[in-house]
Amino acid sequence: MPRMPVEAPIETNNTTLYEAVAARIEQLIEAGTLRPGDRIPSVRRLHAQLSVSMSTVMEAYRLLEDRGRIRARPQSGYYVQAAARPLLAEPKASRPGKRPHRIQVSQLAYELNQKISSPEVIRLGAAAPGLEHLPLKAINRLMGQVLRWHPQQAHDYAMPPGRKELRAEIAKRMMDVGCSVGPDDILITTGATEAFYLCLRAITKAGDTIAVESPTYFGILETLETLQLRAREIATHPRDGIDLADLEAAFRADKIKALVLVSNFSNPLGTLMPDDKKHRLTELLTRFDAHLVEDDVYGDLPFDGHRPKAVKAFDRRDRVLYCNSFSKTISPGLRIGWCVPGIHMDDVGRLKLATTHASATPPQLAVAAFLANGSYERHLRRICRHYREQVERMHSTVAECFPAGTQVTRPAGGHVLWIELPKGTDTLDLYERASEQNISFAPGPLFSSSGKYRNCLRLNCGLPWSPQIEQAVRRLGELAGAG
Ligand SMILES: Cc1ncc(COP(=O)(O)O)c(C=O)c1O
Questions:
Q1: What pLDDT is stored for residue 2 in this prediction?
Q2: Is the CB of 191 under 6 A from ligand 1?
Q3: What is the pLDDT of residue 87?
Q4: Which residues of 70-92 are buried (b: 16+ CB within 10 A; e: fewer)?
Q5: pLDDT reading at 453 higher than 50
Q6: What is the dihedral sign for C-alpha 229, 265, 441, 116?
Q7: Sign of torsion, CA 145 148 153 156?
Q8: Using a 6 Å cutoff on CB, does residue 460 contact ligand 1?
Q9: From atom 14 of ligand 1, which residue's Cα is the shortest distance away?
Q10: Is the CB of 209 inside a 6 Å radius of any atom of ligand 1?
């Protein structure tokens, strides 16, 4: 790479000025001009050298911090970070069978859920964010305020589509996802789980076949099971998601009514579909007269500061029913989710009314007030940094203490890792042995409609790293090796 003086004029080439400044520093790191541990120019110095404002330099440095390229040291300045080494090999693309299956995962999911309710259990299983990372003080304060501001209305039903204040704030945020929608296009739900349940119910009938990623989030499989739908698993690569050729083959072989997927930093693989693939997916949906129920609950959690677009952003023919929630970013307990069901709005609204009537009003008002006060972006930046570090620490600990041949995903966002143990390992048996030592994780067969992934497991990296967590991961590695 050619060496470039730091003070060469900045060219923006379709990017913002701060991104161009960040790119300049990254070029210097790539070229070895700035090495790991080196101090980079101070904000004031770069401001003078490049003739850009101090706030532009600050924004650029914040972006580089988010990307893990530099780290601030208090009272000292910014330093180049050592590149995170990929430690273990990445699992290969999955190769599920080609037949649709009836689903039976809810019993296993329920049993495992019962087991982790004890407070002594180190919960590496549930994909829950660490409560320590969430803006709970601000939300608790706002809950009190909204009850004082709306002493009566806060106790009234917030009939579908839900409170307008919240829908207006969500509509603004949907621009970051690449979707231009208004408050009336949004329906508030009780978490993303209710959002995809209602959307699927609106567009399917019992016995229909639905395409899913393989492996896929077991909550999606549980919903398919409840609705008596069958699943056709689609081959999925841990980096860029479902194999569109396999999806097309499935469309040709069976009448597939819809596809359900987690498009950004998926659970459990952490996949991120590139934009061109999202675009091609919408074309396939149109060609085969199918719908997509898109779950985007991890989209606000990128490690590099770039919020990816939704598939919905490429949807010109109203094929995508978009679902999301604040469970991974603000509070899972408030149960605030939403969907953008497009032309199916009336059907989904009618089903919402018929099933739960309305979602609770005070949390809708509190989240609306939190989004309106403008601190959500700063909060996201902070938690993404935590998740990135926790994912890296989990990866390196697994690399140290799991059996030889273990493979691990390398997500670019979110907070879960998918681990493929050597063939022959039985993670259901490992689960029993780990439970005896108060350690939980999510065993692989939960993520498949056909009982696949017996040698796999998912670990949650959402909790703050601690000696207890590290010890639990090490113990799990020993148990896996002894199995
Ligand atoms: C992909 C995915 N979708 C949805 C959910 C649940 O979302 P909510 O709590 O908003 O219902 C989870 C939780 O683990 C998840 O991983």
A1: 45
A2: yes
A3: 77
A4: beeeeeeebbbbeeeeeebeebe
A5: yes
A6: negative
A7: positive
A8: no
A9: 127
A10: no
Q: Are 224 and 231 in contact (CB under 8 A)?
A: yes
* Any atom of ligand 1 within 6 Å of the Cβ of 329: no
Sign of CA dihedral 44, 50, 52, 58: negative
The finding on whether 217 has its CB within 6 A of some atom of ligand 1 is yes
Beta bridge partner(s), residue 214: 235
449 and 231 in contact (C-beta within 8 Å)? yes
Angle among Cα 325, 394, 467 to the nearest 5 degrees reads 105
Left if phi > 0, otherwise alpha if psi is -120 to 50, otherwise beta: which for 213? beta
Cβ atoms < 10 Å from Cβ of 67: 17
Q: Which of the listed residues 222, 295, 364 should we mutate to test ligand 1's pocket, taking the one with most ligand atoms within 8 A of CB?
A: 295
Structure-token pair, residue 416? 């879960």
> Quick check: 270 and 302 in contact, CB under 8 A?
no
Ligand 1 centroid distance, CA of 86 (Å): 28
Helices and strands (DSSP H and E) totals, the chain: 15, 16
The DSSP H or E segment spanning 101 is: none
Residue 267 DSSP SS3: coil
* Residue pLDDT, tens place only, 192-208: 999 999 999 999 999 99
**Residue 1: what pLDDT?**
44
Q: What is the mean pLDDT of residues 373-379?
A: 92
Q: Which residue has the higher pLDDT, 66 or 219?
A: 219
Backbone angles phi, psi at 264, to 5 degrees: -125, 120
CA 404 to chain centre: 29
- Mean of pLDDT values over 301-322: 96
Six-digit token pair at 298? 């991890």
A 10 A CB-CB count for 189 gives 29
Residue 297 CA, ligand 1 centroid: distance in Å: 6
**Which tens digit of pLDDT belongs to each residue from 117-175?**
778 889 899 899 999 999 999 999 999 999 999 999 999 999 999 999 999 999 999 99
Q: What gap in Å lies between CA 263 and CA 312, rounded to an integer?
A: 10
Contact 130, 387 (CB under 8 A): no
Please determine, for residue 104, whether its predicted confidence score (pLDDT) is greater than 90: no
Q: Please indicate whether residue 264, judged by its CB atom, sits closer than 6 Å to ligand 1.
A: no
Which residue owns the Cα nearest ligand 1 atom 1?
Answer: 267
How far apart are the CA of 333 and the centre of ligand 1, in A?
Answer: 12
